[in-house]
Design brief:
With about 80 residues, the protein is of the alpha+beta class. It has 1 helix and 4 strands. It has one domain. It is about 30% helix and about 10% strand.
Length: about 80
């Protein structure tokens, strides 16, 4: 006999999933947690909802670092005209 939540024939037999943020129980087809209003993904092998990737934060971080790099280059490494 298999424990509850194990895989059987490649399918997950979970009936609910837990929110990664507040640990509230959600139906498997839920996309937003009804308790904390966070986006949730598919259920993983442990019964928890996967945290979706926050692409906006990654893009903003890369752009901020690029801006900082350009500023440092402009401040220290840009050739200044000789008088």
């Amino acid at each position: 006999m298999q424990a509850s939540g194990t895989e059987q024939d490649g399918r997950s037999i979970h009936t609910t999933k837990k929110c990664y943020e507040c640990l509230g129980r959600l139906p498997l087809n839920a996309e937003i947690c009804e308790f904390c209003k966070k986006k949730v993904g598919d259920v993983n092998k442990d019964g928890f909802a996967k945290k979706p990737v926050d692409w906006k934060a990654y893009i903003l971080s890369v752009l901020s670092l690029a801006g900082l790099g350009l500023y440092i280059w402009w401040l220290f490494f840009k050739d200044s005209p000789s008088p």
